[in-house]
Write a structure and sequence with these properties.
single chain; alpha/beta; Rossmann fold; seven-stranded parallel sheet
């Protein structure tokens, strides 16, 4: 039996963080941090509202928890918002990661592993089928900030993992952050939603992503790992499939081309991933 380990996970408001927390908590001692309040967080002593930019808050939680493993899932991931507010994206995604790593070195120097949740958006999406050995080439602010954070993690001095999922299909805690959350809500309300037919992606269920991440965290593996599905689909096909799975009508989901979007210049053509190192 694997001994119980102590984990601290950031970003519980997001799909990655919440589903990772739930998976880890089934088997290990899990703690998580968040920014936006939710009734669930008031029910237990394992949740902490924290601003990692404040050194005193970082010091207090790290001294209290003394994590053996640290999973960093918190980020600013809205692509459009990152383009509008690039300095904020840099502050959260790059400087936030830098400050967390600095605090860990000061207060948890014996950390067993640092796990960083990254993204397929570190690639430009021109060819698709990206493996862990392809050279990242971000196309937009979000991808660029995540790549800069990856470089910090690669040189952080701790045993580390960089996990790159593509589209993670799962619900967020508050029901407004996950891939299905937005358009399922609109479909139920009878509102139209448009998705690209010429943007290709791979998907992975949130539960499967979290389980594989935990396996990797507890292994001796380090470095970059892609976690994605086998089937390449357009964003439109993904939306229709998820609506059908829930027994909802599909006539509110409409096709759209990337060139017709306001942010056409940052929309990737094919961000599909190949998980060459994960089976």
């Amino acid at each position: 039996m694997t001994p119980r380990r102590r984990f601290l996970i950031t970003g519980l408001n997001g799909v990655y963080g919440w589903n990772i927390y739930r998976e880890i908590a089934r088997h290990h001692e899990a703690y998580g941090t968040y920014r936006k309040t939710h009734p669930v967080f008031k029910k237990g002593e394992n949740f902490f509202r924290i601003d990692w930019a404040h050194e005193s808050e970082a010091e207090a939680i790290l001294k209290k928890i003394r994590p053996e493993y640290f999973v960093h899932a918190w980020c600013m991931c809205d692509m459009d918002l990152c383009e509008i507010s690039p300095e904020m994206a840099r502050k959260v995604n790059v400087e936030g990661t830098r400050k967390i790593l600095a605090a860990l070195h000061q207060f948890c120097p014996d950390l067993k592993k640092f796990v960083f949740l990254s993204t397929a958006h570190v690639f430009d999406g021109e060819k698709g089928g990206y493996t862990e050995f392809d050279e990242p080439k971000p196309k937009h602010v979000f991808g660029a900030t995540k790549r800069k954070a990856e470089l910090l993690v690669e040189k952080c001095g701790f045993p580390s993992l960089i996990i790159r999922p593509d589209i993670v299909v799962g619900r967020s805690l508050q029901g407004d952050k996950g891939t299905p959350d937005f358009f399922i809500k609109r479909t139920k309300a009878g509102k139209p939603t448009h998705y690209f037919t010429d943007e290709l992606r791979t998907t992975v269920k949130a539960e499967a992503m979290a389980k594989r991440m935990l396996e990797l965290a507890l292994s001796d593996e380090t470095g970059v790992f892609h976690i994605g599905g086998e089937k390449v689909m357009s964003r439109y096909e993904i939306a229709v499939s998820l609506v059908k799975e829930r027994g909802l009508p599909t006539h509110h989901i409409h096709p759209r081309l990337r060139k017709d979007d306001e942010w056409a210049h940052i929309r990737p053509k094919n961000l599909s991933l190949k998980s060459g190192r994960t089976k």
